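=== Structural record ===
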Amino acid sequence: MKRKTDVLIVGGSAAGVTTAITVRRHYPDAEITLARKENQVLIPCGIPYIFGTVGSPENNLIPDAVLSKNNIDLITDEVTSIDRKGKAVTTASGDAISYKKMVLATGSVPFVPPIPDTRLNNVFTVKKEVDYLKHMSQALDKAKDLVIIGGGFIGVEFADECRKRQNLNVSVIELLPHCLLLACDEDICSKAEDKLKENGVNILADTRAEAIVGNGKVEHVQLAGGEKLRADAVIMGIGVVPNSDLAQSADLKVDERHSIYVDEFMRTSDENIFAAGDCARKTSFFTGGPSRLMLASIASIESRVAGANLFTLRRRNERSIGVFSTVIDDLCIGSAGMTERMARETGFDVVTGEASSPNRHPVGMPGVTDVSVKLIFSKESGIMIGGQICGGPSVGEAINIIGATIQKRMRADDIATLQVGTHPALTASPIAYQITNAAEIALTKMR
């Protein structure tokens, strides 16, 4: 079958859906088609919660109604090749789809470390596939000892969710000195590890997994020091790599990490093909160099840029800052931009400001928890380049405020005099508002 469309979007996760909606808003008369190989699409960031809080993959899906409500045609078929000259693609079923503009939103695939033997039964990666995750959940139902390799956000969230399963002993192996160390400074990493340990999770930081061992099925993980860690199941939560095979087969330009090259408008090396999300090249907001960040929030921003620019260049990508948040039991953690350690290693001369206070006022209000804020500024310019928060649920939105101030290159004095609304039942006191106070404290160090 031959089809024609004005805009073809390849990929149906966060980047693909956001691109489609953005195109519809900017080009209301365009014919838009989204092609994806999956029957059902998972919410990527919600995958760990399938194994605890939400209970099943079916409770963690992006609804197709968001496409139909925006008059976007959905094709459930895998795009297997691109004819750039003819401006058409071929699908696994043999169909051909011609396009005027195309957006590649093919995402990422799990990184599998080069250790033996990752192919044993009950060794899992974090695939975005409903049936695969159902199989993983069934295996964990029968397991007693789970080992998670990787202590970043994926590994830590899996650990916190899986420890809720009865009779399941959970261990996390992390190569770096602390879990979450790529996103947070040591003090917050330690708080996260302490909370996991309080809930029975075994943390093995500064430890290397050398091999996965078993006879057909995993039996233990061998550590660098020779110790064997018993395992009925293993989850590799080390991270992801760009899914750029389709782009490479079409001879589109990629970088040394196989990310699809894009310019500031999200155009690839073919002016009629754009790319967004995990498959696309990322550039650091702070250094202008390559960035390894792959987040749904970044994918969403890139998609809003790509979708708006297809037929008229309207937006530029502001580069990747990185805004993270997570929750471990009742401890909420947020991080944006550079950590203090990262900033110093990159060559920035920095000052920090820290402030902690209850998130309600007075302290007798219901739901009171302490919230601690750390802000990181360039000493030379006073511009904020990073921030971290830990405490109660308000952390999730507060870290977005910090991310916005970083993106707008605000200085410490701007933040110290930022007008904020406060309310006894919702926020810290205006006298003790953590973000403005942390900026004021940093200013005293700059003088």
Q: What stands out?
A: The first strand starts at residue 2 and ends at 4. The chain has three domains: 2-109+241-309, 123-238, 323-446. The chain has eleven helices and 24 strands.
